Amino acid sequence: GPISRWRHFLQARGVWDDDREDALKTLAKDEIVTAFKEGEQRKRAPLRELFTDVFTKVPWNLEEQWQQMEKHVREYPEDYSTQKFRDLDGPLPAMDA
Q1: Dihedral angle at the C-alpha atoms of 68, 69, 72, 73, nearest 10 degrees?
Q2: What is the pLDDT of residues 30-76, one digit of tens each?
Q3: For 82, what's the count of Cα atoms within 13 Å in the CB-facing half-sphere?
């Protein structure tokens, strides 16, 4: 494939070798693991963003689903990891009746 051809090209020029590749792989893996650990420490987006991230104007039926989901998760917090989400520890957002 193109990556192995590129590697062979660089090795033929003397600017790349197995030691550099191993070092780069180790560095990349360490950076990825660090980024994951940092990301896991942050709170997740509010549940509402499950709907607003996809739609500019949320359709009425999905608006209802969000409201039902938000109320349900707040009613049964012991069944959900509510502390991992933003906006679930404050007051219930304004909703249509």
Answers
A1: -160
A2: 999 999 999 999 999 888 898 899 888 999 999 999 999 999 999 99
A3: 15
Identity of the amino acid at 5: R
Stated length of the chain: 97
- Residue 97 is predicted with a pLDDT of 57
**CA–CA separation, 5 vs 66, rounded Å?**
50
pLDDT in tens, 20-33: 999 999 999 999 99
Please, are residues 10 and 16 in contact by the beta-carbon 8 Å criterion?
yes
pTM (two decimals) = 0.58
How far does CA 16 lie from the centroid of its chain? Answer: 34
DSSP secondary structure, 1-55, as one string: -HHHHHHHHHHHHTS--HHHHHHHHHHHHHHHHHHHHHHHHSPBPPTTHHHHTT-
Residue whose tokens read 């070092």: 23
Query: What region, left, alpha or beta, does residue 87 occupy, with left being phi > 0 and alpha being psi -120 to 50 degrees?
Result: left
Q: What is the DSSP letter of 14?
A: T
